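Thought: the user asked what Variant surface glycoprotein (VSG, atypical), putative looks like in 3D. I have the sequence; next I should run the structure tool and report back without guessing.
Action: structure_tool
Action Input:
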Amino acid sequence: MHTTTVLQVIALLLSQRKAAAVAAGDNEHHFLDLCALIALTQRPIPELPETQQATTDYQEIQKLNISLSGTDWRKQFDKTGTPPKRAAYKPSGATEDSLRKERRPYWINAEDEIETDKGPEKILRSAGADGATQADRQRLLALLQPIAEAAASTFTEIENLKQASKALTAAAIHKKIQTATYGEQATAAADLTAAVFKAANGNPTNRKELCGDTTSASAKARTLTAFLYCICAGEQSQNAGGFKACSNAQPANADAQAALTNVHTAIQGLINVCPEPGNDKVTPDDITKLIAAVAGKTTSKAQQAFYGTFAATDCGGLSGSGLCVYYKTTTKADSKAYHNIQWKKQLSDAANDLRDQQLATQRLQGLLLQLKSLKKQAYNLRPQLEIYKKLQVTAGKSGTTQEAQAKKGDDCKQHTKNATCTENNCKWKATTEEAGTCEAKAEEQKSQGTGEGASGTSATTGCTRHGTDKTACENDKTGDKQNCAWRKGKDDEPDKETEKCRNGCFLVNNKFALMTASFASLVAF
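Observation:
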């Protein structure tokens, strides 16, 4: 009996217990969190890098390519018709050349700019190619091709990345933050009207529909400003709207619970007493941390969730009921609505966009620097041309000397008499008293050798001095120049099937042959 009495007393006390009323300042921490989120609309948003310079750099490379190209290739861009204009791309056969189709607009623009400059001289002068012979222009054009191809690839990637990043601009991200704060039809607190506010929040007809009522339904509030109103604005019927749940500085609320006719005025007054927004650019972490701060202060119990302070029954704005936003979480649909509040989703999307923007910015910056470097290389090819020409002259002199030496030996063989042989600075080698052969003198034979040991002399000089030492042979260099090489002989060398230490000049000649071949194979970019 005693136990039963105690339980009855406890039950009576619990049934009579009332939740504590909302006191002034109870929601200040919620207010500051919401103010920080609303302030995102006034803080600068990072922007993607400007890419206009990339277009300019690429176009300058195209102009140089056009300026160095032959007139036959450039004829395809001549203006025709009335009014005169350059023809767009047309397939020459049944198959479309997608690369030429893609590049033709840039070629046409290059021709237009060259025409504006009254010819290619300005571009050629910038590249150090003014006054260059036609042969030198072709060599420069050959040197330009790999640079131009790399530039085209880089520029295409820049353009594709720009296209893929349209939703990552500062304006697009800022719009998401504004919509989360004010709804689709407003960009600032000053744009709010009662009608605009209601349309952004499910068209509530009274405060209980907007903020939630435990006896009927969850809140319709979708925007940050709706949350600010529900959590901070006291009901007009209590103390003439002067109840200050969020800040001592907040103005009195003249909005009646049943009408929401002055809801926009109350919101504007609350935003005006928020702390000043900072000037630092918004980061994705800023947004996610602020969302977490608001979500972390949610109160949940008995299949109900509240933002702000709940006392009893509803979030109607009275200290005895609650200044809050209410969600029931009875069903899966209820819980989904609670976890996917519109402003939270839109701000989370904005944070994700900022992260993607950071990645796109890093890639774009790298591509822009790469294209800038390629443009610099394109306009600095003249030194490479001069080096090639000097090497070509050196190789020519070496070949001429060898040819002259070989010719001297052949000339001596033409003489069949001792007298004419010696008169021509050759050596007569008698086989009988009356017969013999005319040969080059020993010192000339030595000079005719390939460095492996001249005919009739011991192999102690030139590359032959290395004998069978392959390592010593291959290490015989003057600076970067290879003096000797371990190889088989060429067509004009003796014992050509045998691998041994031979003169390295043939390697140099081969390099010149390859260089010449590469210059001869020109394809217009």
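Thought: the tool returned a structure. Summarizing for the user.
Final Answer: Structure for Variant surface glycoprotein (VSG, atypical), putative predicted. Confidence is low (pLDDT under 50) at residues 1-18, 443-460, 506-523. The first strand starts at residue 79 and ends at 80.
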